[in-house]
Specification:
The protein is an alpha/beta fold and 354 residues long. The protein folds into two domains: 186 residues, L-asparaginase, N-terminal domain (Rossmann fold); 124 residues, 3-Layer(aba) Sandwich (Rossmann fold), CATH 3.40.50.40. The strands form four sheets. Strands 4-1-5-6-7-8-11-12 form an eight-stranded mixed sheet, with helices on both faces. Strands 13-14-15-16 form a four-stranded parallel sheet, with helices on both faces. Strands 2-3 form a two-stranded antiparallel ribbon. The radius of gyration is 20 Å and the shape is globular. The structure holds asparagine (ASN).
Length: 354
């Protein structure tokens, strides 16, 4: 990579709105700037930054292999001893997926910090430069070590997992409804971080090109099993139910889940609700029925992130039993809450914790 011999931060540029401009042809907003331009917009930095252009895409266009390529580039950059930390500039739409995958695979104390923008680079008041300055500061800091991957956005530092994009246009694009932010970076670069969470052991890097299919199926009033069956027909090895409430579907989907699990498909129940755990409590097609049919409750993991985890586990070729264990452990609310002072989730009646 020809990295500088002095300590530096590596900026991995992938595109997104932070690198986007208005297309002269059709007026749409498209990723256009290389990483050097994105960095220049942030002004001079006290820390040296090496730019690596990985791709130039809106993050809504990324594939699982693209996400793995980002993780591979992180590993390559961390093989250089002078690398202090990594910044990934990324579209906000699917930052929660790539950052979570990076967090799952991260086996190094040095920080990996994802950031982006809500306003394009050619807007009159872009937010990308400020976000990038904060990300570089954090990636170069000793305070951020040992915390895996982080998202820094609009001054807030957010942990993975359970962080997701919760605003389509507001500058405060991300939140973590369950765990909250872990700290902040002020506009002048002061870092304030809470206690570092205990980390689960890292996953091995899955191979690219496996083509393993994992689909998300939404549950809603009147939903039938048509889309679930279509996913299976398309070859899905895993299905995430974006269920209602505590993780509920209906009797028809419950029957479909039972058959799919019997055929070796991993079915995970997540929820469309923003906060709180998924639990198998209700019958008649609710979460209890789904769990009895063999679905795995995702704990605090929302569909975007548990789909990423499931795809990684299946690509690693783990057994069904191992996949289920990993999902239960990595979504476990008591573990995700444990190292911080966030209030614990109150127990629910009717079903013991998994
Ligand atoms: N704000 C953004 O970055 C959204 C953009 N569409 C993306 O995800 O690439």
């Amino acid at each position: 990579m020809g990295s500088p011999a002095t300590e530096h931060v590596v900026l991995l540029a992938t595109g997104g709105t932070i690198a986007s401009r208005t297309d002269a042809g059709d007026g749409s907003t498209v990723a256009a700037d290389a990483g050097g331009t994105v960095l220049a917009a942030a002004g001079t930095s006290t820390v040296a930054v090496e730019v690596v252009d990985l791709m130039q895409k809106g993050s809504y266009l990324l594939t699982f292999d693209d996400m793995l390529a980002v993780c591979g580039a992180i590993r390559t950059a961390l093989a250089v001893p002078e690398t202090l930390g990594i910044v990934v500039t990324h579209g906000t739409d699917t930052m929660e997926e790539t950052a979570y995958l990076a967090d799952l695979l991260h086996d190094d104390p040095r920080p990996v910090v994802f950031t982006g923008a809500q306003r394009a680079a050619d807007s009159s008041d872009p937010d990308g430069p400020g976000n990038l300055r904060a990300a570089i500061t954090l990636a170069a800091s000793a305070e951020a070590r040992g915390r895996g991957a982080l998202i820094v956005f609009d001054g807030e530092v957010l942990p993975l997992p359970a962080t997701r994009k919760t605003e389509t246009t507001a500058l405060h694009a991300f939140s973590n409804p369950d765990l909250g932010p872990v700290g902040s970076v002020s506009p002048t670069g002061e870092i304030d971080l809470g206690p570092a969470p205990e980390r689960r052991s890292p996953l091995a890097a899955p191979p690219t090109g496996t083509g393993i299919r994992v689909d998300i199926i939404a549950c809603y009033p009147g939903a039938d099993a048509t889309l679930f069956a279509a996913a299976l027909a398309a070859g899905a090895r895993g299905i995430v139910l974006e269920a209602t409430g505590l993780g509920n579907a209906n009797a028809e989907l419950g029957d479909a889940v039972r058959r799919a699990v019997r055929d070796g498909v991993v079915v995970v129940t997540s929820t469309r609700v923003h906060a709180g755990p998924v639990r198998g409590v209700y019958g008649a097609g609710g979460g209890r029925t789904l769990e009895d049919a063999g679905a795995v409750p995702s704990g605090l993991l929302r569909p975007s992130q548990v789909r990423t985890l499931l795809q990684a586990l299946l690509a690693l070729g783990l057994s069904g039993e191992q996949v289920v264990r990993e999902i239960r452990q990595r979504g476990d609310p008591s573990w995700l809450h444990s190292p911080t002072d966030h209030s614990p989730i109150s127990p629910l009646p009717g079903k013991a914790d998994p």
